[in-house]
Write a structure and sequence with these properties.
four-stranded parallel beta sheet, about 450 residues, little secondary structure
Amino acid sequence: MMKSMKSMMMGGAILLGLAMCLTSCEGTLDDVFGEWSRPSGNNSQSNEKPSEPTMMATPLTLEAITAGTIVVKNPQAGMQFSLNGAAKQAVTTDAITVAVGDKVQFYGSGTTITAYYSYDGNDDNDTKITGGTAQVKVYGNIMSLVDETGYEAATKLTGEYAFGSLFNGNTMLKDISDLQLPATNLTNRCYRNMFNGCTSLTSIPEALLPATTLAEACYQSMFEGCAGLTTIPEALLPAKTLANNCYQNMFWGCTKLTTLPEKLLPATEMKPSCYATMFYQCTGLTTLPEKLLPATNLAESCYPRMFQGCTDLTTVPEKLLPATELKKNCYSNMFYHCTKLTTAPALPATNLAEACYYYMFYECEKLEQTPHLAAETSALKKECYYYMFAECKGLTKAYVKANYTDDSDVDQCEGMFRNCTNAATSTFYSADADNYKFQFSLDSWQTEAYE
């Protein structure tokens, strides 16, 4: 009993002391027990910082990396800008002076602007954000240029050439990693020439081009001449429904690209001129992935000049071109002047088309042997093999099943092996080998039956 009473007295003393502490001090239970004493759940007095606006909710913004000027050439009526959040004002041809870190945000009126293109056929009259002296990064939602209200959710373009040539020639543009081009309903030529000649760009954001159905020439020449570009993200071009000329010239002259992602071009059904001159004169490319071009349903002129002038390209995969039925001009000039190319892809097609292989490997002077050309003589079409291997002076083996034909009205084989005379020991595999030798003065070549 005594022990129990003693315990009760001690407990009472502790509670009395705690009560005196709480009444004589300005603290709270938190001060005594710590933060674990707070109930869980929402705290109406939380000091958490509000989240920053998403890039979709941010208007098109140019932020200065260096001091200088930002210039807009031929601004559209109704085009506005705000400097560092100040009141909006009309964009004029006057230079906007910026210090490091300054932000210039651009808007459109939503009533008169559907495109930043002059429509007079003169590219010099297009609206362009170019010519300033400040190095800049560009981010935010480009749809603010169409309408300053509601752009956060806008995904539909209405005017042809909508943003065509907008940054054309802007060599001070360094970074577009947070730029948003959210439109999934495109218009013809909507981004044509948009970053043409932006030589300071080194990379492209993976999700920049979300549209899965394209419009005519929508990305034509979009990154042409971006000589600083070193990589292309694999998921950049998700579209499987293509359009005429959609990627024509898109990366022409991007000389620092050394390779391409295997799944960059997932479409399996081509459209006329869809990939024409897409990587023309990308002189840094050294090889290509095997599954880059999975299409088996080709279209007229789908790949012409696609890799022309890629002078560092040394090898291409055997299964690069799986199509077995060709279309007019489909592979014409495809590897023209790839002067270091030593191997060619297989060409399994036996159903040929007019000019299908026209100048395909012209001046590939290190190419060692031709693919097996298995088409029968009866399957040859006008200019199908026209100058196909002309100036390929390193050839040691040639495989052609069909007989040579010299009908001047169709010229199926004209120029096919012109000046292929430098190899010391070469063999021609064809039932008509002697005729080929005669036609192209291949006097030193040996002859064998087609394998």
